[in-house]
Write a structure and sequence with these properties.
alpha/beta; FAD/NAD(P)-binding domain; D-Amino Acid Oxidase, Chain A, domain 2; 2 domains; nine-stranded mixed β-sheet; six-stranded mixed β-sheet; binds flavin-adenine dinucleotide
């Protein structure tokens, strides 16, 4: 491991974005029209859409740390839609519902760019097709089927299948074969987006209380009171729970999620390596492994490499190796240098990680726990684009507006659950270990043994769409 590498929980993006001076914690009891618990993208986009609908609305956010310092400020910055899930969506919800969700998610990918432009927030938003590339002969992410499914619902040009020559025109590596692109995609500097959004909310009068972790929520007939560990509370007729993986602690949602860790490493500026690979279009790239690698360039010429193969969280215990896992960072560095051997003697300067809230269907889900409490969770490593859509959905639900957004297939879907602990952790960890074994054998050109193969098939047999 590179000894000069800074490995922290929060990572480089937040440093580059300049951080944020925390707002005052909640010190006395207050009232709001809508209270949002959790200041990641989902909570902040919900607040944004609420005040766009009614600028006089009193919106408050209670955030346990500093808004945008969780996964929202540390992720890979790939702004993606839901194109890869269209075959599943068609099978479960039909063509019209699949098309409605694809369109809504695509609108959000574009809307984030428009928002940055209009609000003067320089979040390095760059629209560019996303490339999904085969890096071993065994990989098959089903892109033929995905392209056909998108075409069947009328989104004919959303997915393009590429041979190895076309892939090399986007990014050259001896490890890459064919692949596919998804048109409606972009990248951002995630912390600039999160902190830019936070600043705009404060400017528009949203009350943000940081270092204010909610300890309890009491629902009365007329209102909800959320109280922090310091004892102060906010009373509001409507509360939105946007707490990411911490939703594991909410009894009604805990079984509908699991949490696993993802890690990222980043190089020093290497514009020469990027130019030599011909990778100058700003495309985000993923490979077609089951526990995928995701990688991209930055405006200042670095390469970022992430890997979704970290540990599972036991119950709602986060922190520790969920956020800082040297073995995950080591794996990501090795992959970086395998894909781009020109990086052999170049510095990998930063590493960081965080929790991914995984839903059994791979799709986030939104809904209500009674008339006053609403939630959204389960982004499964694809939350940068979909959290904007989630904010639009939750703002509608909070205002009791039923519309095309609240009729999307991700609103109040039939609940799918994981087994209770300790089975979730034991089973999930065993499946992840098998997936890692399979991916690494296949990376080396071999075939997995039948037992490992059988274990990796379990989620599918149980009707779950977990990996990637
Ligand atoms: C390493 C990594 C890489 C990723 N890469 C990508 C990517 O490239 N593209 C992509 O689309 N997605 C990616 N993701 C996923 C993406 O970051 C998330 O889906 C997205 O940020 C979810 O936003 P959120 O608001 O739901 O959750 P969060 O960002 O987790 O925000 C939830 C907030 O709630 C707060 N909170 C929790 N409990 C309480 C409480 N009791 N009281 C008050 N506040 C509370 C937390 O402190 C946190 O700030 C990645 C995630 C990680 C960790």
């Amino acid at each position: 491991m590179n000894s000069a590498m800074q490995h922290t929980a929060t990572g480089w993006w937040l440093q580059e974005a300049g951080g944020a001076k925390p707002t005052d914690p909640l010190a006395v009891d207050r009232f709001a029209d809508v209270l949002i618990v959790g200041g990641g993208y989902l909570g902040m986009w919900t607040a944004w859409h609420l005040i766009q609908g009614d600028p006089a609305m009193k919106v408050a956010i209670l955030e346990s740390e500093v808004c945008g310092h969780g996964p929202s400020g540390r992720n890979g910055g790939m702004v993606n839609s839901v194109a890869a899930l269209v075959p599943d969506l068609r099978a479960k919800h039909g063509d019209l519902a699949a098309r409605a969700l694809l369109d809504a998610a695509n609108d959000s990918v574009r809307a984030i760019g428009i928002w940055c432009e209009e609000q003067g927030v320089d979040a390095w938003y760059r629209a560019a097709a996303h490339l999904d590339v085969e890096t071993s002969e065994f990989q098959d992410a089903g892109w033929d089927e995905i392209a056909a499914a998108c075409a069947a619902i009328g989104a004919t040009d959303e997915v393009a299948l590429l041979d190895s020559t076309a892939v090399a025109q986007i990014c050259r590596s001896d490890c890459f074969a064919g692949g596919a692109t998804v048109k409606t995609s972009a990248t951002v500097q995630p912390a600039r987006l999160a902190l830019g959004l936070r600043a705009k909310l404060i400017e528009h009068g949203v009350s943000i209380y940081e270092h204010s972790r909610v300890a309890s929520i009491r629902v009365d007939r007329a209102a909800v009171v959320a109280r922090t560990f310091d004892g102060a509370g906010i009373t509001a007729p409507t509360v939105i729970l946007a707490v990411g993986g911490r939703a594991l602690r909410i009894p009604a949602l805990g079984r509908r999620l699991s949490v696993a860790s993802s890690h990222i490493v980043m190089t020093e500026p290497v514009p020469d390596v990027i130019a030599a690979a011909g990778w100058t279009g700003g495309e985000g790239i993923t490979d077609q492994r089951t526990l995928l690698h995701y990688f991209r360039t930055t405006r200042d010429g670095r390469i970022v490499m992430g890997w979704g193969g970290g540990q599972m969280a036991f119950a709602s215990r986060m922190g520790g190796r969920i956020e800082v896992d040297p073995s995950c960072a080591e794996h990501a560095v090795a992959t970086l240098k395998r894909f781009f051997p020109e990086l052999a003697n170049r510095a990998v300067t930063h590493a960081w990680g965080g929790p991914i809230d995984v839903s059994p269907t791979h799709l986030p889900f939104f809904g209500s726990l009674g008339p006053r409490v609403h939630y959204g969770v389960g982004f499964t490593g694809n939350g940068v684009g979909p959290s904007h859509l989630g904010g639009r959905i939750l703002a509608s639900i909070a205002c009791d507006r039923r519309n095309d957004l609240t009729r999307l297939a991700i609103v109040e879907p039939d609940p799918k659950t994981f087994p209770p602990e300790p089975l979730r952790w034991i089973g999930g960890s065993a499946i992840r270990a098998a997936l890692i074994r399979k991916d690494s054998v296949e990376d080396g050109g071999g075939r997995t043994d039948p037992i490992t193969e059988a274990i990796t098939m379990l989620p599918k047999l149980l009707g779950m769409n977990l990996p990637r």
